[in-house]
Q: What sequence folds into this?
């Protein structure tokens, strides 16, 4: 899958690796199953692009989201 994201202008072009755990719990109409964790890793490549239509990133939250 390919996805285009517009990072803040202060992000330096390069490759960035992300690692973490996806925590989830499945439920159906009868019950909820025990919570599980799935390790995830992915890489993001940031490149220099051109401004399209003058669109800018909205202000980002100063809070770290976990």
A:
């Amino acid at each position: 899958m390919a996805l285009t994201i517009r990072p803040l202008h202060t992000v330096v072009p390069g490759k960035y690796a992300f690692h973490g755990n996806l925590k989830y719990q499945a439920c159906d109409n009868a019950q909820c199953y025990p919570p599980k964790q799935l390790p995830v890793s992915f890489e993001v490549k940031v490149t220099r692009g051109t401004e399209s239509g003058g669109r800018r990133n909205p202000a980002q939250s100063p809070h770290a989201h976990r």
Remarks:
- The beta strands are 14-24, 36-46.
- The longest strand covers residues 14-24.
- The chain has a mean pLDDT of 82.
